[in-house]
């Protein structure tokens, strides 16, 4: 995966971060409602030729594909909750859910596609800006640089 067009830590109580659902691949797969919310926030991109997938569960959380022509952009919502309770070392439950949100173009495994197709930096920047705007525009979501101070 190439360098992300956008990456940030996100903290909020808005989305489920404590109740493990029966359909989760792993107990840490929080973010289903977050991904659905983000897909709805990105819906205006359709007017600019983008298609937005339904949320997709991954072993680390959830994600969305945003595509236009040959360009495919993956938005990953990586949950930082572990979804398990350690009975030997009880801790107070977290007061907010936390995710790393990453937006990056995906070129797949085909080396020719890397060279000749799907390289649309403007599309990736547009999607990254839309994601950042949605996150920063929500008063109950805190956004900070990924890997930075909290």
| Helix percent band | 10-25%
Mean pLDDT: 87
Silhouette: globular
| Uncertain spans | none
- Structural class designation: alpha+beta
Report the β-strand fraction as a percent range: 25-35%
Q: So how many helices?
A: 3
Strand-and-helix sequence, N→C? EHEEEEEHHE
Main sheet? Answer: 7 strands, antiparallel
Question: What's the Cα radius of gyration?
Answer: 16 Å
Cα separation of the termini: 26 Å
Number of strand elements: 7
Describe this structure in words.
- The longest helix has 17 residues, at 121-137.
- It is globular and about 50 Å long.
- It contains three helices and seven strands.
- The model has no long low-confidence stretch (mean pLDDT 87).
- The chain is α+β, with helices and mostly antiparallel strands and 150 residues long.
Q: Could you give the topology of this structure?
A:
Blueprint lengths: L5 E7 L19 H11 L8 E2 L3 E3 L2 E8 L2 E9 L17 E10 L4 H6 L4 H17 L3 E5 L5
Q: Which descriptors would you attach to this protein?
A:
150 residues; seven-stranded antiparallel beta sheet; 3 helices; globular
In brief, what are we looking at here?
With 150 residues, the chain is α+β, with helices and mostly antiparallel strands. 23% of the residues lie in helices and 29% in strands. Strands 1, 2, 3, 4, 5, 6 and 7 form a seven-stranded antiparallel beta sheet that branches.
């Amino acid at each position: 995966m190439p360098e992300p067009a956008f990456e940030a830590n996100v903290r909020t109580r808005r989305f489920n971060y404590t109740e493990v659902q029966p359909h989760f691949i792993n107990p840490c797969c929080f973010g289903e409602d977050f991904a659905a919310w983000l897909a709805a926030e990105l819906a205006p991109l359709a007017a600019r030729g983008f298609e937005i997938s339904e949320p997709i569960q991954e072993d680390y959380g959830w994600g969305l594909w945003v595509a236009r022509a040959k360009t495919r952009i993956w938005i990953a919502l990586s949950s930082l909750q572990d979804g398990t309770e350690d009975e030997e070392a009880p801790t107070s439950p977290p007061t907010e859910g936390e995710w790393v949100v990453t937006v990056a173009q995906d070129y797949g495994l085909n080396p020719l596609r890397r060279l000749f197709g799907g390289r649309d930096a403007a599309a990736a920047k547009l999607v990254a800006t839309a994601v950042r705007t949605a996150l920063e525009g929500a008063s109950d979501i805190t956004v900070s640089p990924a890997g930075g101070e909290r």
